[in-house]
Amino acid sequence: MIWHVHNENFILDSTRIFMKAFHLLLFNGSFIFPECILIFGLILLLLINSNSDKNDRPWFYFISATSLVISITYN
């Protein structure tokens, strides 16, 4: 039981360390984050396009416009 609690605390601590490093990498004056938004938007468009029945055309415009606006306003 003690090992389980210790292991759980280790997982929580390592998750906190990873989140701090991730936050510093992307949000602390980095220029990577806007490009990540655009790439994520493109991946989302590809997933919707491959799984849709071609009636979801307004979603394409909404997702691409939203990712572009977020990417531009971030800088």
Automatic annotation (TrEMBL):
Coiled-coil annotated residue ranges, if any:
none
Residues making up the signal peptide according to the UniProt record: none
Domain NAD(P)H-quinone oxidoreductase subunit 2 N-terminal per the UniProt entry, residue ranges: 18-73
List the Pfam families hit by this protein, alphabetically.
Ndh2_N
Name its species: Triticum aestivum (Wheat)
Mark the transmembrane ranges.
Answer: 21-46, 58-74
Keyword Cell inner membrane attributed: no
Keyword presence, Transmembrane helix: yes
What InterPro entries does the entry give?
Answer: Ndh2_N
* Protein name, per record: NAD(P)H-quinone oxidoreductase subunit 2 N-terminal domain-containing protein
Supply the alphabetized keyword list.
Membrane, Transmembrane, Transmembrane helix
